[in-house]
Design brief:
Squalene synthase HpnC; mainly alpha; 12 helices; geranylgeranyl diphosphate synthase activity; squalene synthase [NAD(P)H] activity
Amino acid sequence: MRAPVKLRARLEPAAITQPDDTGRMETPSGKWAGDENFPVASKLIARPLRPHVMAYYAFARAIDDIADHPELSPDDKVARLDAFGRALTDPEADDPALATAHRLRQSLTATGVPAQHGLDLVTAFKQDAVKGRYDGWDDLLGYCRYSASPVGRFLLDLHGEDRALWPYSDALCDLLQVLNHLQDCQTDYLTLDRVYLPEPWLAEQGEAVTALARDHASAGVRRVIDRCLDGVETLLPRAEALPRHLADARLALESAAIVALARALTGRLRRQDPLAVRVELGKPMKLAVAARGALGTLLARRFAPASTPDRPREEPRA
């Protein structure tokens, strides 16, 4: 296990506030932590670490908004994203238009967490700028390796957790990403011409991506959605093992709550049509599901301490 993080400097509170859009290269969508499906820097996270989690979130939100901006050209998006990547690693960079990246760089310096977890996000969103179709499950998980896995790896490193847990964390973060793709499959297609549902899977069902513009899912599209959910369910057992292996009890409770929310959202996407309605968990249900997940892990940890992780076996492909 890695040594727990020792903060070398205090991160200024500005890192935990929503940025404005003045004089920046950012293109704020207005979406912020409270709008996400899953908790971001909740009170389960130790107070001294929350500003660092929010600095990472703010960076991720800023570059995601650039990649998703409907009016920027692919070249403009890539140029802006490259600038964010450079600002994250250059200690001399001080362009105020990249203040979100500078704050994360300060956080990484204070915590000793590698910048690679931010740079990987840049790689993912540069891919979003130029790629709008996916060939299969492996192709989709290859994208998740850069768009989702780094989030969990950042949190594990921030808490000084054993990197042998990365595969468990990757499974959780990747399945969350796929669930979000399924929720947004129509909006992503209509506004960005971006389709994460594997195109060959649609073709096998006699469907083109244009089927995502309809007001309900055809039988073929429904089968593709369910196939993606089958893939999610192959990742869930590995993700569910994460909380019991975490040394930090608070992070274990947070991850258990997120796993429970993911399982509930998976079930709802099985039952509801994301082309017909916005499939999501309401706030009361989120609170109840998260509380049950966290409570179950809290009780389990009272009787059994965190266990040493084994290297998980390769999961079957969807």
